[in-house]
Fold these 2 entries.
Entry 1:
Amino acid sequence: MKKSNLFVTFVFLALISVSYGQDVILLTNRAKIEAKEIVVKGKTIYYQDYNDNSGDVFTVSLGKIEYIQYASGEKVLPADIMDKRNSLVGLGNNLINFHILDFSTNNFTMSYERVIADGEFSLQFPVSLGYGDENSNLLLPPPFDEVDIKFWNRFSAGVGLNIFPTRQGKARYFFGPAIYGGSGVYYHEYYGLDNTYDNTGFVSFVVNNGLIISPISHFSLSLVGTIGARHFFDVEGGKTAATGKISFNLSYRF
């Protein structure tokens, strides 16, 4: 065979080897799987053995891999796959939330929320600044504007875990626990005495239940009901009371 023909044959075989190259799946136990025809569905990776031409399909859980190294050189981490799945429904994994109803009780509240674990959970970090006192007006319709509020927030922050049973989508239910801490002013109901109060710190343990609707990719709105207990450190030697509220939030997603 002429040298020119040998060269052409070599190039042709090289191109075939590139086109049908070997992918590698590295497991968390450091074992390597030589694979081809990799397909990711949900939390399961389907693949064929690179050295087996039987066509049998094998599976491995997404949680058991370190990364996938494709023949092209691209390396994909599990987190990249999760982000890509959420992007397929057009929704970002980061939310900046504006808690609109908190203005009615003289609080300015915002939170950052990060969607994790393939859209099943999110971590939320709220921060609230309060500017009301016992003489402040509530921006609520009757008869709620006559509610006697004993505690007025000055500053609070916390962290919450939201659980999405059906992951992310246009309309989803979620629930989960949260913990808050901060400080404020607690007004007493002592007969014959006016403006009797304590400056106190507090900690709250609550459970949230809500509905989030995302009509477009970068905008969501949510309605959240919260119920739990709040402990005041400097009121009557320590006081625990029930707490609850309803929140209406507008969110920017990216």
Entry 2:
Amino acid sequence: MTSDDDNGAIDTMGDLVRLIGKREVIPVISNAFRIEQIFREDEELSRMMAEVPQFYDEFRTFDQQLTKKWAASINYPMSDDHNLARVAQYLQVEKGNAASRESYRQYLNDRVLKLSEGNEQYKNDEEYRNIVSGYRKPSKGQIPLFSDVVTDLQHPRFMEGVDDPLRLLAQLPVKIYITTSYSNFLERALEKEKKTPLTQLCFCKIDKNSMKKEHLPDRDYQPTEKEPVVVHLFGLEDYTKTLVLSEDDYISFLMNAVEYMKSDDMFPSYLRGALSDPESSLLLLGYQLRGWDFRTLFRFISLVRNLNDTDSPSFTIQFKPSLGRKENEARSIQYLKNFFSKGKFTIEWNSTEEFIYELWKAWNA
């Protein structure tokens, strides 16, 4: 597989396989990556996706359609109801930070419970119905973890013979994974591959006594392939206060990153060293250019990495723009190339899942 470049074709897959073999690749995985797989079975969201104009570059993901439904449930009044950061910002102003984050968490749970109530297993399996019922009636004041609900109700569901792409990523010889997911889906995938991951949160300015000690940045940790680290940059649902959800949250994250860039208690040396290593390569999976999560992540990367001293290429997986007019598409493609080239990223035009399947095939060739 090759990607076009101003200087000729780049063998993206060959480069990645070589760099993975050298243990120099750091996958960076979005929150939307797993959300897309979980809610792909949701018929209402699927219909919403089908209604998007063919040549439209805005509402193209299940994550965005899910946000539109959450926005409708809270009577969001603006037109940008697909934008999670802005919807969360609105609710934070109206109801407060905690209420906004809890509302989002509860909505995700309600949506996956509704999805589960509509499948054949719910109709035919009493034990399954009891699990759903138990999550419908949680302990007072407690919101079940989305990752628990999803796992216990056996989502996402892949067609027979189709591998879970997250488990394929978990099988690669990687020491450090970075994710902007709020849930521990990646850790669960690693555990299924007989690995022992360490969950770490960085730049979280909350009472450390309220967090498990093993989730706090460990300045002395040395990750290995069998004991990799999973770094949650934008918080973890176990601690609602840590979630980076609204526009203000993203700005606060960057301010904290600048303030604590050299603090091992906020940004452990193993992670700082890996990100700033000129021979390390990042692989961005599941991000949309316009999303606040991507824009904040990309700015963070530029703060940490010395782009003038970076030897290895990094990679991002993107859909090609589909705008109807070839001239507009060509200009959009060139814009994306110019944008990512500033960070020394090569673009692979593909879906994230399809790319992972092709990477797995190349790695095992």
